[in-house]
Task: structure prediction
Amino acid sequence: VRLSLSNHALTPQIMPLVRLSLLDRYGKPLSAGEIPPRQYLPAALQQSRWLNADQRIDAELRVSDPSGQASSFELDVCVPAAGGGLRCGGDGAMLAANGATP
Result:
């Protein structure tokens, strides 16, 4: 899986976790998990904690599907939420689709 992370904000942002969801041929989730930066960052950036303003990082992940049923995948970026847990980019879209506000 290849991914590109970009920070279009004016300030540095904490390096996100990447949520990877494996999907079956009908688009239903088979499994999901969060991948920490140390597992996706290129070797030269392993010590980075921040994604600087206008910085882009290209990375490649090797994943396997033990079930052999995955036909596609989805990626999302997540950061620690105040009060615990994670806040992911796709959360806002899900809330808006349900008529709620974050």
